[in-house]
Amino acid sequence: MSHPTAAATTYLIYIYINAKLSHLHSQLTAAAYNADAMLLLQAIEQYLGSINTWPACFIINLFAETPSLPFVEYLTAFFARNDVPTTLAYRLYRACNPEAANEFVRQLFYAHYSLWHASDTVRRHSMYYDVV
After folding, report:
1. Exposure pattern of 19-51 as b/e (b: 16+ CB <10 Å)?
2. Are 75 and 62 in contact (CB under 8 A)?
3. pLDDT tens digits for 70-79?
């Protein structure tokens, strides 16, 4: 079995990123017309500053990635570290990413938020960006 060349790997990464960005663009366009999402975004910008200063990987996870344990942990760590109230953070996530609007993701989001605040270990091992 042969391994892909560096050029082939780079090309595949390029295709993947373009597909994600295309999906992200359609999600952002849909969210732009969602008044609730815009109001929530404005409320959260009071805690995090302008969305233009947020890490790109966070924005991609918020809008485009299918909810999974690593992505929910990453999002909750980012929100919690920057003191965004739990309910406000989840409401924005749900408004920006329709796949997050299910009970399992909601429970996972709230559980990890609680763990983040209750455990020094979780905080030390969480990847997040401090935008304050």
Report:
1. eeeeebeebbeebeeeeebeebbeebeeebeee
2. yes
3. 889 889 888 9
Question: How many Cβ atoms from other residues are within 10 Å of residue 63's Cβ?
Answer: 20
Roughly how many angstroms between the first and final C-alpha of the chain, as a whole number? Answer: 49
- Contact in structure between 129 and 58 (CB atoms under 8 Å): yes
Amino acid at 111: A
Residues of the chain with pLDDT below 50 are 129-132
Contacts of 105 (CB under 8 A, 6+ apart): 67, 72, 99
Which amino acid, one-letter code, is at 110? Y
Rounded to two decimals, what is the model's pTM? 0.67
